[in-house]
Amino acid sequence: NLSQAAGVFALAAQTLTVTGTVTMTGGGLTFTTGAMNVTGNFTISAAGAFIQFGSGAHTLSGTWTNSSTSASWDATAGEVVFNSATGGTMAFAGTNLAEDEFSSVTFDSSATTAQTFTMATRGLRYGGTLIVDDAGVEAVNNILTTSGSNLAITGGGLTLGAGGTLTLNAS
User: Fold this and answer.
1) Count of beta carbons in the 10 Å neighbourhood of residue 11
2) Tens digits of residue pLDDT in 18-39
3) What is the biggest distance separating any 2 CA atoms in the chain, rounded to whole angstroms?
4) What is the pTM of this model?
5) Residue-wise DSSP of the chain
6) What's the average model confidence in pLDDT over 46-72?
7) Is residue 69 packed enough to be buried (19+ CB in 10 Å), middle (13-18) or exposed (0-12)?
8) What is the pLDDT of residue 139?
9) Vertex 152: Cα angle to 36 and 158 (nearest 5)
């Protein structure tokens, strides 16, 4: 597990691997070309906490909760892949951030059964491409849903692969 309350944890080309959860109650994580691999849930509970994704590929295997409003947040060009065996609730920052939360973001599954990623609280903002797919060989149908709420999905391109479904307002 990784808990951060203050300061900036800066990684240039290194990879940060966390077996367990990440909790940010302050401070920042910055990447240049490095990557982040987290096997558990990722929670950013402080308005002033931030991530600068850099150009690396980041894989998160749990849920996401982001309460940041920090002007230091930077989606940059990094790709974030939510690759979960259980899906779960995703509480994005939405318009709390002055810019996109992610550059490109993918919702995938590491399980042999379909997973549902349910948006809650705020919408999703991305600048590059949103991908909902099953990139593995499991041939399952992964779902990103707004859970019946009026949550916006705002961004660039959209790719729904053969194993992907986007459910808007789920009503």
Assistant:
1) 17
2) 999 999 999 999 999 999 999 9
3) 44
4) 0.92
5) -EEE-SSEEEESS-EEEESS-EEESS-EEEESS-EEEESS-EEE--TT-EEE-TTSEEEE-S-EEE----TT-B-TT-EEEEEESS-EEEE--GGGSSS-SBSEEEEEESSSS--EEEE-SS-EEBSSEEEE---SSS---EEEE-TTS---EE-SEEEE-TTEEEESTT-
6) 97
7) middle
8) 55
9) 60
